[in-house]
Amino acid sequence: MEQNKIIVAIDGYSSSGKSSMAKWLASRIGYRYIDSGAMYRAVTLFAMDNGMIDSNGNVDAEALGNEVDAIEIDFAIMPDGQHTLLNGADVERQIRSLEVSQHVSPVAAIPMIRKSLTRRQKEFGQQKGIVMDGRDIGTTVFPHAEMKVFVTATPETRARRRLRELEDKGMKADYESVLANVIDRDHIDETRAESPLRKAADAVVLDNSDMTPAMQQEWLLNLFNTIVCCKK
Description:
There is one protein chain. By secondary structure, this protein is of the alpha/beta class. The protein has helices spanning 18-29, 36-49, 61-67, 92-95, 98-108, 111-124, 137-141, 155-168, 175-191, 213-231; strands spanning 7-12, 32-35, 73-78, 81-86, 89-90, 130-134, 147-152, 204-207. A 5-stranded parallel beta sheet has the order 2-6-1-7-8. It has a 3-stranded antiparallel beta sheet with strand order 3-4-5, with helices on one face. The two termini are 15 Å apart.
């Protein structure tokens, strides 16, 4: 492990662009990228596939909690980028669907699920040199991370971004449904009892509502270089 390697924690609202930013930064600086949101999406897909979420969206928390430690989640580099593996199967496309998005926040609010995935996320960071994005990375998973960023944007901006992402993947969706999902997820994430979404006291806020991807990348890299230089 290089002496000056650090942990980068990027938190923020759904569809704020934090995953794209985290992926880019990890690639740019040669760190490993861990998508904590994909881990919760994978567990959600597992619950859906195994009848643990009913037609009204209610989650059988006890049944899922009993299974979560046995669920295998990993990441693999594919020609088009990093994919999420669920029990050995590539589920990257499935976990990005609007249906999974509609159920992931209630699943992520279950204490047993959060404890299990938080433990795994901490293990990823033992050697440092990682960029991880999510909702509680800088507050719960890595409270002592050297670089913390909290990303935000207006709900309307985030809904438009999410809609474009779905359309680019050939998935059908409409703006009003996506906006409603964004607002609903914000409420669930901010009000859940276990590790709610909030800005860490020492996180730097980035409102990227009016920023291009290139502007966000430049901002991130400048902050990273400043922090690493200060550590030397």
